[in-house]
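User: quick one, fold this
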Amino acid sequence: MKEETKKEINKLIEEITLKPELAIEGLRIIQDNKGTDKYTWAKALGEIAQEKPDLLLPYFTELQHLLDHPNNFIKWGGIALIAELLRKKEITTSDESYQEYMHLLEDKSMITAANCAKGSVRILKNQPELEEDITERLLKSAKHDFESKGKLSPECQNIYWGHLLDLFEEYYDLIGDKKRVLAFAASCCHNSRKAVAKKAGEFLKKHLLDFA
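Assistant:
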């Protein structure tokens, strides 16, 4: 990142911290601006969501629109931002905001689904009561077909499986139904992508002792 751009982001962070309602102005620029300002605002809001999410929670409903942004880079940043805010909200599996977020696991874009999966684990760590539902959704998402340039991409699915193995490892101690996760890992052992097959083998070697 250029030093000048970083300075602009830091300036915006300071301004929004002092006047949180500027987040709505930032959202307007992100939605309407065709230049580079939208990226600066998106980055600033994303950093605030990580460091001071309480400042943005009053504008959660408006910020949810980032999940539908036509620019993928903005959308992926929005997925991370909303995850940080959902971590701080008191939510249940029936909440509309949670449902809307988790629906992104079904996206045809592997990167979109992977970003949502990563964010869901961030949420889970703050709200472990959601573990059963999130684990179920992650396992279900492994069966989705992904597309690349409008065509089915088995390789994208392979990459996604490797991503899921990393995430399951990240919160393994919190998983209730470990057998199902181990069964998923076992299904990856003969994956055509060697890195995924190797990762699956290491996962099983480490955790099968739980059931010895």
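User: anything notable?
Assistant: The chain has a mean pLDDT of 94.
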